[in-house]
Amino acid sequence: MGRGIAFLYGVVCYGIFFLSFLYLIGFLGNLLVPKSIDVGPIVATSSAFLINFALIALFGIQHSVMARPEFKERWTKIVPKSIERSTYVLISSALLILLYWQWRPMVGVIWEAESVWAQYMLWAVFFGGFLLVLLSTFVIDHFDLFGLRQVWFNLRQQSYTHSGFKVTYFYKFVRHPLYVGWIMSFWGIPRMTTGHLLFALGMTAYILIAIRFEERDLVKFLGDDYARYREKVPMLVPRFGKGHDTVKGTAGNQPLPH
């Protein structure tokens, strides 16, 4: 694949990701989109559960399996390394779009915030979660995480190197602020329906499973730097204090699928 075509491919993949990310806000919040988590064709509850569960499982399996170093080693014998990350992003986005398209609403109400202050508070958690996700990607290296840095280096005929492992901002207080943001967005909603609850439970379960595989890979890749970091900084519940000040990072940062 030519360098110019690879770069264009990476930009298109990023564009598809960003649009699917924006649609996810509307999908989960039932805001400004034609089809959302609670709006769409209604089918029998058992059918809706099976379809929705399969969509969540498909996304979770792909998202984790393709991120593993063992898979990448085999995959890059087929796909050029310069576009491996972009291809991962594209397939993840495609499965997310499939979920939007095929999701079957389950509209039984589990809870609903009636007071205005409670609604505002939950909406703040919802939007704050998405903001935390986006900001956390820039703290890591947004353009590396989504494949643009790789295709840019390839375009300029420069050797790709991993960004340095650094412990800054949110990462001083919690190891996975991206996942914290996702969980906030999944659960912070004033009106929780059966379908939304299934989505929140399924995606939260995926996150808890994915963290174990991801941290195993990070320890292998970063060695003692990450092992010390993991000992001092909590996984998902932030801890504010002086303990994090002693954490230093010097090794490369692997663009893992937070």
Summarize the structure.
The protein has 258 residues and is mainly α. It is built from ten helices and four strands; from the N terminus they run H-H-H-H-E-H-H-H-E-H-E-H-H-E.
Helical stretch tally: 10
Structural class: mainly alpha
Largest sheet: 2 strands, antiparallel
Low-confidence stretches: 245-258
How many beta-strand segments?
Answer: 4
Question: Can you list the strand order of the major beta sheet?
Answer: 1-3
Amino-to-carboxy terminus distance: 28 Å
Q: Helices and strands, in N-to-C order?
A: HHHHEHHHEHEHHE
Question: Which key phrases capture this entry?
Answer:
mainly alpha; two-stranded antiparallel sheet
Describe this structure as you would to a colleague.
The protein is mostly helical and 258 residues long. The protein has one domain. The protein has 10 helices and 4 strands; from the N terminus they run H-H-H-H-E-H-H-H-E-H-E-H-H-E. A two-stranded antiparallel ribbon has the order 1-3. It has a two-stranded antiparallel ribbon with strand order 2-4. The protein is globular, with a radius of gyration of 19 Å. The C terminus is likely disordered.
Task: Set down the secondary structure blueprint.
Elements: H1 3-29, H2 45-65, H3 69-75, H4 84-102, E1 109-112, H5 116-140, H6 142-145, H7 148-155, E2 163-164, H8 177-187, E3 191-193, H9 194-222, H10 224-232, E4 252-253
Antiparallel strand pairs: 1-3, 2-4
